[in-house]
Structure prediction request, 229 residues.
Amino acid sequence: MKIAIVALCMLALVAASQAAPVTKPEADLCPICLQLMNEALDQLVNIILNVGVVGSCGDVCGKLPAKLEQVACDLVCDYVGITEFVKILQEVDPDAVYICQVLGGICPIHDNAKVDDVKLIVAPSSGQQGSTFSMHFSFNVVNATGAGEVALGIQPPNGEGFGDGQLVPGFPVGPIAISFRLQAKPSEQEPFSPGTYQVEAAVCNGECGATHPHTATLGTASASFVITQ
Prediction:
């Protein structure tokens, strides 16, 4: 599912026939697959429904509106074959990570993934409306993670929460640091009223909150910041 966000951005993350056996692609298709499914999954499902009998990857991919999406779709579809491509998209609930894992193992699965030393720091701790808050999320990867998500949720003092998420191919063993930035500029979507805002960050195997196999919340951390008048 593509995730909507209110003025919040993440900074600096890092051809086969239908009958042929799937082999590991020369290029790493996982990031390409994740981006494609995150941005165009609903479109692909609708295209398949409208086309009916699908004979080739071009029958599906060529109908995507953006050229880059067409190229990405062709790469993924050609790798697994049109029959498997259509089958998975029709059978699996919308979940970009899980789809890319079951599509010929394009994205890695590491069920023994483990992280520790999970921290979240918000700076500054308080500021006026319109201020920019930096949120630094860090953790140490003990066992490499599979494809998944880094997510951030913010709960205002009043009103509905909002957040952002970034799909990732996985993290290797070692320290990881990720930064989010929020400009607390009032808008129709979020007035950024004065008060305390609770923040929670999570790193997950699979999409955070999903129920598919190989999905787990590996670590969370929380913090807060205050918006003054």
